[in-house]
């Protein structure tokens, strides 16, 4: 009797221990599922899901545990992002957060949730210069260059196109203010003339009064720094309808399919856009895009797909390098898997990464969107692409780095 009970108890303990050990390791995906970035989300989230699939097919995390992405909606806005991040950290108990996307949502979630709770946060898209000097205890990173860089590239691109006088309208948030000011300073430094520099509020029904003032300033073109699904497409449409402007220059927030759908390719033929990009000569990028399109039926050319994959993969590598789900240990491991030196590991090479880490060797992840060498502020250098509208999509014509 006692022997039977002992055997049953032992079996139950083994079963319980095995079940507990097999629990999923959760990583948060703080996405703007609704709100002005909603149109960007499906391919971006697919990029993260492909990283999740690569990890699980390549042996899983730690001792074979399953990586599970937990998606929460930031709505690309500050307070909803704080609420969503709080749920991820305190209820879902995620190890780390990939996201948010917009700068304002990322900064709000970082200050209110990630930093005070000691949770690593890696954004694939947030570009506001104000992120650089966050007092974040080294918990907040991004894998796209700051708008301090994109603003300078945009200034060069505008002058290369022959626009010597431009008017600027920028949305009144962290994203718009950051890149708007950087662009203005650099453009004027290079000899350009800003005829009117004006901020606007998002989600207004009409911008006609503001646009009339901008148009009367004598500018060659209008620089629009905003999200297409917020104020951006509406500003372009009302400009065209009222004869205010015919030529537009936009940043990544405007490089949204919704702009083409609402305005039409023909009306955008003389416009161009800049956006964080990937190196053109990267074989890993070409292979990844082919695999992505085969898996999801297309979409690899959409903005920030590469960066979402890389941000998710870097978090997974940090967990593997840390050897545990301890949040502080994971944060401390991020730079060691992202920065040189180390044996190079590329997209889809999770099994190789596991073997190297298990053998105690240093690794250096070289991603779809390039190398991610984090500086002391958690920032990276990067690539900015120049895009035009061709048919029903955007075509990259040049890369700045």
From TrEMBL:
Domain Leucine-binding protein: 25-342
Signal peptide: 1-22
Regions crossing the membrane: none
Transport as UniProt keyword: yes
Keyword Plastid appears in the UniProt entry: no
Pfam families named in the record: Peripla_BP_6
Keyword set, alphabetical order: Amino-acid transport, Signal, Transport
InterPro entries per the UniProt record, alphabetical: BCAA_transport, Leu-bd, Leu_Ile_Val-bd, Peripla_BP_I
PANTHER family: LEUCINE-SPECIFIC-BINDING PROTEIN, PERIPLASMIC BINDING PROTEIN OF ABC TRANSPORTER FOR NATURAL AMINO ACIDS
Family: Belongs to the leucine-binding protein family.
Protein name per its UniProtKB record: Branched-chain amino acid transport system substrate-binding protein
Organism of origin: Pseudovibrio ascidiaceicola
């Amino acid at each position: 009797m006692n022997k039977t009970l002992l055997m049953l108890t032992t079996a139950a303990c083994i079963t319980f221990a095995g079940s507990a050990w097999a629990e999923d390791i959760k990583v948060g995906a703080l996405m703007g599922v609704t709100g002005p970035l909603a149109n960007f989300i499906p391919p971006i989230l697919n990029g993260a899901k492909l990283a999740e699939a690569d990890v699980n097919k390549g042996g899983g995390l730690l001792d074979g545990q399953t990586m599970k992405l937990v998606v929460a909606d930031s709505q690309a806005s500050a307070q909803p992002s704080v609420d969503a991040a709080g749920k991820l950290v305190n209820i879902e108990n995620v190890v780390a957060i990939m996201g948010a996307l917009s700068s304002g949502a990322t900064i709000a979630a970082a200050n209110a949730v990630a930093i005070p709770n000691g949770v690593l946060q890696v954004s694939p898209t947030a570009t506001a210069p104000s992120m650089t000097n966050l007092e974040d205890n080294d918990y907040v990173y991004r894998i796209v260059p700051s708008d301090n860089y994109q603003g300078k590239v945009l200034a060069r691109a505008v002058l290369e196109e022959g626009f010597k006088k431009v008017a600027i309208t920028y949305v009144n948030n962290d994203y718009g203010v950051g890149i708007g000011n950087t662009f203005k300073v650099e453009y004027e430094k290079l000899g350009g003339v800003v005829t009117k520099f004006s901020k606007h509020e998002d989600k207004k029904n009409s911008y006609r009064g503001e646009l009339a003032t901008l148009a009367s300033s004598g500018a060659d073109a209008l620089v629009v720094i905003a999200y297409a699904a917020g104020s951006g497409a509406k500003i372009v449409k009302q400009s065209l309808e009222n004869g205010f402007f015919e030529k537009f220059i936009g940043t990544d927030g405007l490089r949204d399919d919704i702009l083409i759908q609402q305005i039409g390719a023909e009306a955008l033929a003389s416009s161009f856009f800049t956006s964080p990009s990937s190196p053109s000569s990267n074989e890993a990028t070409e292979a990844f895009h082919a695999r992505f399109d085969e898996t999801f039926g297309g979409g690899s050319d959409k903005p920030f797909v590469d960066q979402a994959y890389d941000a998710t993969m870097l978090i997974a590598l940090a967990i593997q390098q840390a050897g545990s789900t301890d949040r502080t240990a994971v944060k401390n491991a991020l730079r060691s898997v992202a920065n040189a030196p180390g044996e190079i590991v590329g997209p889809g090479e999770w099994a190789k990464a596991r073997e190297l880490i298990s053998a105690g060797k240093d690794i250096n992840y070289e991603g779809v969107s390039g190398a991610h060498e984090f500086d002391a502020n958690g920032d990276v250098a990067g690539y900015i692409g120049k895009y035009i509208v061709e048919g029903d999509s955007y075509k990259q014509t040049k890369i700045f780095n």
